[in-house]
Give the backbone structure.
Amino acid sequence: MARILPFEQHLDEYENWFVKNHWAYQSEIRAIRELLPAGLGLEIGVGSGLFARPLGIRFGVEPSPKMMRMARNRGIKIVRGIAEQLPLKRATFDLALMVTTVCFLDDVPAAFAEAARVLKADGAFLVAFIDRESPLGRTYQKFKAQNVFYRHADFYSVRELLAFLRQAGFTRFDFRQTIFKPLPDIGQEEPVRSGFGQGSFVVIKASFHEEKNP
């Protein structure tokens, strides 16, 4: 069952986070953009379109009706659905993106298998998330009961997600990381570096070494 209730009830608070943390938000966009390939894109769990729009992704899937309306207002073509059962045809997109969605999934392996299904043979899947083993990830876990969004979240490490990605058939990986300071201390764009293990926000780009089976 999609965990949409916090986003239905606290949409203004969600939107305001990105205003309050403007430089962290811009740093996250830049980290994703460095790995984002050209082509027809889909954001899975597109939310209100705050990432899809600046990244030029035209299509989205989202279970929250309130989020869907905001995403449509931002120009995203959107359908209602969940990551574990995408209402989309096989081998349609050049890229699929999840941004801080993975921690709200009920079945990560099923969702990653669905992402693989809707990608073309030479497509790429980008998973952007807060690393559970990072400073921010540890803070979110420590205080998750006090956060209207993250009290319902399950955080993952990079290595845990790599195992799920390999299970879904992905074999090639690239990484970017950003957010190296506590959020209140960020007054300009954070650097974006390759790899993982230092930055709290990590982007994994997963692709197929060989063509998928039809």
About this structure: DSSP finds eight helices and eight strands in the chain.
